[in-house]
Design a protein that fits this description.
Layout: E1 2-6, E2 9-19, H1 22-38, E3 43-49, E4 53-56, E5 73-75, E6 82-85, E7 89-95, H2 98-101, H3 105-121, E8 128-130, E9 133-145, E10 148-162, E11 165-173, E12 193-194, H4 206-220
Parallel strand pairs: 2-3, 4-5, 10-12
Antiparallel strand pairs: 1-2, 3-7, 4-6, 7-11, 8-9, 9-10, 10-11
Length: about 230
């Protein structure tokens, strides 16, 4: 583990090796959130990959689980609908104390979106928000969408707060098997696609994404090294 200092204390960064089992990782994350809320552990960001699986958020609809027997399905407890996690996708679990950062959920989600957008910009990818659609999107001028160029989702965002400490977080598609998304209606949106950095023609390694995430986190969340 390594750490960097900032005005609100230390944020601990961990990169988990291999494929992190979902249930055990979720339990560890919830335990860490309890420690942060109690003031016995610093804030944390965990970077990891999961084995192929689907997660159901609090707004998930059964009809959106197209292939229920394809991969394990977990009830995540976060906001949002169904999403996919798997190898080649960088998941960042973000455990920050909003008691110290301002109890503003909308502002926090906006900061997470800004973090993703800034990270993508590091690779010259323009990520954008879309009203009514959760996550970060890229325009595909070479493809036709429902009303103009196609727009594909490249990153998902889903959070939960407990005692104003955040958990869950973001996921960015680096090089996952995009066919795995067909077992669900991702985030309940059926008329748009899914993409990844490699699908966009960028041979980006996971380690490169980790460096960009770290750098842009410091900028977006106003972190300064001592």
């Amino acid at each position: 583990m390594d750490r960097f200092d900032q005005g609100l204390g230390a944020v601990e960064w961990r990169v988990l090796d291999g494929l992190a089992p979902y249930a055990e990782t979720l339990a560890a994350m919830e335990a860490r959130v309890a420690e942060i809320a109690a003031g016995t552990a610093p804030e944390a960001v965990w970077l990891l990959e999961h084995p192929p699986l689907y997660t159901a958020g609090t707004s998930a609809k059964a009809v959106d689980l197209v292939e229920p027997d394809r991969f394990p399905v977990f009830v995540a407890g976060r906001g949002g609908q169904y999403t996919y996690h798997g190898p080649g996708q960088r998941v960042a679990y973000v455990m920050l104390d909003l008691n110290k950062r301002g109890r503003d959920v909308r502002k926090f989600v906006c900061a997470l979106e800004n973090w993703v957008i800034a990270t993508l910009a590091s690779f010259n990818v323009r990520g954008e928000r879309r009203a009514g659609r959760v996550g970060v999107w890229v325009v595909r001028p070479d493809r036709k969408g429902p009303a103009g160029p196609a727009e594909d989702k490249i990153a998902a965002i889903g959070v939960k707060l407990r005692k104003w400490v955040s958990f869950h977080g973001i996921s960015i598609n680096v090089e996952p098997d995009l066919d795995h998304f067909t077992g669900i209606v991702p985030c309940g949106i059926s008329d748009h696609g899914v993409t990844s950095l490699v699908d966009l023609g960028l041979p980006v390694a996971m380690a490169d994404v980790d460096v960009a995430l770290r750098q842009q986190f410091e900028a977006v969340f106003e972190i300064r090294r001592e």
